[in-house]
Queue: 4 jobs
Job 1
Amino acid sequence: MKSQSRTRKTKTPDRSPRVNCILPVEVDGADGRIKDLSATGAYLELDDSFELNTEIKFSLDMDTPGGVIKFDLTGEVVRVVKKDGVIGVGVKITNQIIR
């Protein structure tokens, strides 16, 4: 009898493609930086911590050939990592206004 091997399929959550970057960001009046960004989320490095499942508001200015575009973003804190004196905050973007 031939043995059949089974392939285990791991279900991976759907994620938008992420872009590694270092972009300045303003979070509740404090400065930080975005380390990666996607259409649905961002990973921020900040001086202050945020609680899981809380709302966070942040803004980002991007230079483009047509001028500066300002993004006002609202999200939910889904991850908090404290490492080497830096606080990393994973955010699921729930609302965005582009000006």
Job 2
Amino acid sequence: MTNWDAKARAQFSRPSDMALDFCLWPYQRPRPAADDALRTSALLYKSFEVANLGPEMGALTNAIMNAWGRFATVWGMKWGDTGPSWEFYFYDYERGDRKYGIADFLSATKGHLSCNLTPDDTLPYFMFSVEIEPRHLTGVPLDQIDIYMGNPGSTVSSGICYGLTNDGYEMRNFYFSSTRCARPNRFRTNSLNLCIYLWRR
């Protein structure tokens, strides 16, 4: 992958593409995609190009897609004090009978990422996430993987995030989601996400 062209990797959206939100829940599209609409992955690939990390991040995301398939990963782009980063979220609501876990991610990406953390895939988490910074592409090990556990007794869809580091698990924050919208004509989304940060180190 000595040559990188984000435009060449971009693909047009297809009518058969799954309509899934940021929780990988299906939703009804408010309108069909235009004939020239691109899949959202085009934006992700373009961000790699802008960060001058196209070949490295392209190889990493290829490894993820080969293991998980299409439309099975949620991603987000960030910009912080140290520059760009990308966070990838992996859902599996089967929990104890999940198809893929953190160990599968580490196995799929072992040629691209280093990690000395020891995850416990017997924990009933419904999602985990990994934030990739440029330094991780140069051999610096991943120092944190987040898991998201269900919130017992909650009347809405919610979760508790724990960060796995070399020191073990630490609670980081709560997440709350609702599948109902009080004003559907105003909000064209089937979920509202609210993140409450308990503390920041």
Job 3
Amino acid sequence: MDKSADLHPTAEQIRAATGISRRMFFNAVKVRRNGCPELVALVASGGASMNLALAVARFDIQSQRLILEAFKDMKPRARLGFVELLAAAHTGGDHGA
């Protein structure tokens, strides 16, 4: 049996060990892969929800850092709306209209 397989757990093994959903696991992977270190640290500390982090991680790294700086003067409940407005402005408005 290949012992190296034990050193690299699968996503399913990690999920089972931590008790998180498949969706939450892959959302965390996206934030870790696309987010700036400050965003990843904010999520790890409990300072931001996964939904908020996913929304921020859609921006480039420089924009993420500017958004996180703006968060310092915002109430937590206002943050997601702020990011959604930025995303709408960045993409040219509401595509559903």
Job 4
Amino acid sequence: MFKALPLLALLFTVAPAHAAKRDADEQTHCRAVGQTLTRLGKAEAEVAALLKNKLGANASDKDKATVAQYQALADSTLALGQSLEATFSRAAPPSAVDLKALEGAGMDSLTEAAQACTQ
């Protein structure tokens, strides 16, 4: 099972009040986490669409369920990323170095970083 449900739970806890509690560096980091999750969510959605097209109408129920789960992960990843970006939109844009460091992070690390931004 993909981590869509924890991401969905986080989505509803991101509020502008969280941004005000953070210093400038933390706000920039949270904005970078949001941008990274947004890019990742878009990429996951593309993969889900490619899988769906590749499997076609003759896909097994198990394959269809897997693609649906992956699409749910993509949707929740994208929504969380966009929510973080909107919440921390007034922060300074993250540097290319910061974004590059997050690109190599796994989904667990990004989920933990997003959760830290909401507390």
